[in-house]
Amino acid sequence: MPDSRSLPAPGHGSSGARIARLVPGLLTAAAAVAAAFLVDGLLPALPAMTLAVVLGVLAANLPGAGTWTGGRARPGLDFAGKHLMRGGIVLLGLKVSVMDVLGLGWLALVLIVGVVAASFGGTYAISRLFRLTPVTSLLVATGFSICGASAIGAMAAVRRIRHAETVLPVALVTLCGTLAIGVLPLLAQPLGLTATVFGAWTGASVHDVGQVVATAQTAGTAALAVAVVVKLTRVLLLAPVAALAGVHHRKGVRALDAADGVSTTMPPLVPLFVAGFVAMVALRSTGWLSAGWLELGGTLQDILLGAALFGLGSAVRIRILLHTGGQALLAALASWLLIAVLGLAAAFLIAG
User: For 72, how many CA atoms within 13 A lie in the half-sphere containing its CB?
Assistant: First the structure.
């Protein structure tokens, strides 16, 4: 009879096996994030978060690398795309100061909320017009109107949407955000935009925070300062939008339960990571944190989101995307144009 002291504790072996399955993918994501930071350091016009998605897509579609990311590395990459994304969203709150947002003035706040609401509704309508599924339309509208892939991850968690269904929306929001980096600076002079108007336009219409910085910095520090505050005001709206989505989802679950005569575990009204995001906003707004702690939090947030975006990008198969994503691409481009127009109109009123 074997000595009981030599046997593993209950559950210990299975937990170790699960962790071991995650390690290859997490190490791959870590290497990709390091490469993205390196390229971003050499070419600041290319945001690290965008590079992380691009590297993920390349890894998924290059011979050999695709076998690795779709095989042994897949569990860890999926873990990164889901769980590290939530950690990054929490730390994103450290970039938002309520004092900075209120400093814009009430007119600017009303305009930004109006742009987000109109962008959300318009993008959802456009996506449905192009026959995208309700789930994809919801995720695309969330990402385009608020803060890119982070918002998509938050909405997917609130509505309990499968991880696989976030891949296409993340690809679309990354593509259009990258398009903005190249196109918006070219339009500044023909449209006769001042630096502050251009900054407000960038903050009101570009999707991801890193993409906003890359776009606005082309017009100087004044444009960048306005762009970041306007953009972070949009980011702040992630919490109420997620809460509203949670309320709506709970009502739907209750209605289904009543119709089927069953009882389902209700999803949380506000997921823990969204509450964490709000807590980080509150902490940043107190002014207690030194610049060093904020920089550390920002770096950690970039690492977590970079790993998550690489994980999501590594699930994109170009051949399948080209075959099934034509309508989605047209919807995304139409939505991008809509948000650019809405953001420009608001920018003239905010900073004109």
Answer: 8
Residue 130 burial by CB count (10 A; 0-12/13-18/19+): exposed, middle or buried?
A: middle
* Helix residue ranges, H only, 159-220: 167-188, 195-205, 209-216
Are 200 and 226 a contacting pair, CB within 8 Å?
Answer: yes
Rounded distance, CA 179 to CA 159, Å?
Answer: 29
Give dist(CA 242, CA 292) in Å, integer. Answer: 30
CB-based burial label for 182 (10 Å; 0-12, 13-18, 19+)? exposed
Determine the Cα–Cα distance for residues 83 and 283; give it in Å rounded to an integer. 22
Amino acid at 315: A
pTM over 0.90: no
Residue of 118, 159, 125, 301 lying closest to 243 (CA atoms): 159
Residue 30 tokens, joined: 């870590």
pLDDT digits (tens, 9 = 90+) for 17-75: 889 999 999 999 999 999 999 999 998 888 999 899 999 999 999 988 989 999 999 99
User: Does residue 215 contact residue 180 with C-beta atoms inside 8 Å?
Assistant: yes
pLDDT 10s digits, 62-111? 988 989 999 999 999 999 998 999 999 999 999 999 999 989 899 999 99
The Cα–Cα gap between 194 and 144 comes to 25
Give yes or no for a contact between 313 and 50, defined as CB atoms under 8 angstroms apart: no
Q: Are 234 and 143 in contact (CB under 8 A)?
A: no
CB neighbourhood size of 338 (10 A): 18
Contacts of 173 (CB under 8 A, 6+ apart): 140, 143, 144, 148, 149, 152, 207, 208, 332
- Residues whose CB falls within 8 Å of the CB of residue 270, separated by 6 or more in sequence, listed in order: 239, 242, 243, 246
Residues 158/271, Cβ–Cβ less than 8 Å? yes
The angle that helices 149-158 and 291-313 make with each other, rounded to 10 degrees, is 70
